[in-house]
UniProtKB/TrEMBL annotation:
InterPro entries found in the cross-reference section: CD36_fam
Chain spans, region Disordered: 237-262
Transmembrane segments: 204-225
PANTHER family, per database record: SCAVENGER RECEPTOR CLASS B MEMBER 1, SCAVENGER RECEPTOR CLASS B TYPE-1 SR-B1
Record's bilayer topology term: Multi-pass membrane protein
One Pfam family recorded for the sequence: CD36
Localization (cell): Cell membrane; Membrane, Caveola
Taxonomic superkingdom: Eukaryota
Entry keyword set: Cell membrane, Disulfide bond, Glycoprotein, Membrane, Receptor, Transmembrane, Transmembrane helix
Name the UniProt record assigns to this protein: Scavenger receptor class B member 1
Family to which this protein belongs: Belongs to the CD36 family.
């Protein structure tokens, strides 16, 4: 034993964290055993820990249909540990895994449907048929926000000791944080520039952008004023443009007179 520990360079006492001691860590001896033991003789534990494998987590890989193409297959098992069927039984019907795991079922189930539930302990599909409707002390099933928020006040008043709901505490809300990666490259470059330049240069850049914006506004207003003095009627080839009355004919100072022709 001492020679093996010398080869693996390990000590009789190891130093690990509390999480590793409780939920498992890779021990050099277990790692050596996995390399020595044949593959068909799998070790019961992959790691060493006081509660390793005891937190209800299943090591099995279960693939289910999402219902994207057919909602009738929603929640139905497609593969179990990368296999489409089991290898334990002599018939395809017994080896079939095309059923639910018991937690979710396809929609629109009726009382005439047979529910197929796969039990991994029995390695079989269990066909379940509707038997009867049951109730527990005639208690209805109700869903509500905390303190019956957005519900009728009579429901809350019927229960003694429930205070009125506070919208800020009992309502449902979702915060959406827009990502910077969705902005154009030019905007991202400006943001990076704004965060990298010194405060003084950042202030100068802000004033410069403000002045540029004001200049563009003045330029746009000037163009609108100048365009208001231009002729609003243009002559096209092959068209006749009515000659305006002499009293309304623009002077040479304001523009040019358009002559009509065919």
């Amino acid at each position: 034993m001492a020679s093996i520990m010398d080869i693996l360079k390990i000590k009789p006492f190891v130093e690990v964290s509390v999480g590793q001691l409780l939920w498992g860590y890779e021990d050099p001896l277990l790692k050596l055993a996995k390399d020595v033991v044949p593959k068909e003789q799998k070790l019961p534990y992959e790691e060493f820990g006081l509660f390793y494998g005891k937190n209800g987590t299943s090591p099995d890989v279960v693939t289910m249909f999402s219902g994207a193409n057919d909602m009738t297959t929603y929640g139905i098992i497609s593969h179990y540990n990368m296999r489409e069927k089991l290898q334990h039984w002599t018939s395809d019907q017994c080896n079939s895994i095309a059923g639910s795991d018991g937690s979710i079922f396809p929609p629109h189930i009726t009382k005439n449907d047979t529910l197929a539930v796969y039990d991994k302990d029995l390695c079989r599909l269990l066909p379940l048929k509707f038997l009867e409707e049951v109730s527990l002390d005639d208690s209805p099933i109700m869903l509500s926000f905390p303190h019956f928020y957005l519900a009728e006040p009579s429901l809350r008043e019927a229960v003694e000791g429930i205070s009125p709901p506070i919208p800020e505490k009992h309502r449902l809300f979702i915060d959406v944080q827009p990502g910077i990666d969705e902005l154009p490259e030019q905007v991202r470059s400006l943001l990076r520039l704004a965060t990298q330049v010194p405060p003084l240069a950042r202030s100068a850049l802000g004033w410069g952008l403000s002045a540029l914006g004001l200049l563009l506004i003045l330029l746009a207003v000037t163009c609108l004023i100048r365009s208001s003095h231009r002729q609003s009627t243009l002559r096209l080839e092959g068209h006749v443009v009515a000659k305006p009355p002499p009293a309304k004919t623009p002077s040479k100072d304001n523009g040019y007179e358009l002559n009509s022709r065919r």
